[in-house]
Amino acid sequence: MYNDVDMVWLQDPFKYLEGRHDAYFMDDMTAVDLYLLPQAAFPTGGLYFKNKTWVKDTKGKHVIIHNNYIVGFEKKIKRFRDYGLWLVDDHALESPLGNLE
Asked: Can you give the residue ranges of the Nucleotide-diphospho-sugar transferase domain (predicted)?
C-alpha cells in the first residue's frame, strides 16, 4: 500500500479494499493525471521473458523489468539469475569469521 507520510491511520483501511481492482484511490479533490510508461522501457515479465525477438529489438531501452507472469519466490529468483538480472550480493552477510547475521 502506498501511503503519504503525512497521513495517520485511525482504523484498519484494508476492509475497504474489497474486490479485484488493480488500484484504489481516495478522492483528494484534485485531478489525477495518469501517464502510461513506454512498454519498451518498462516491460512485463510476460513480454520480456517470453519474447526473445522483442527483447532483441528493444535492447538498450529497458529501464525496469517486472518479474511477473511467474508464481513463486524461488522461481522468480531463478529466472532473474538465468537471465543475468539477479543483482543481489548473496555473500553480503558472510565474512571469514562466519555469518554476520
From this structure: 1-30
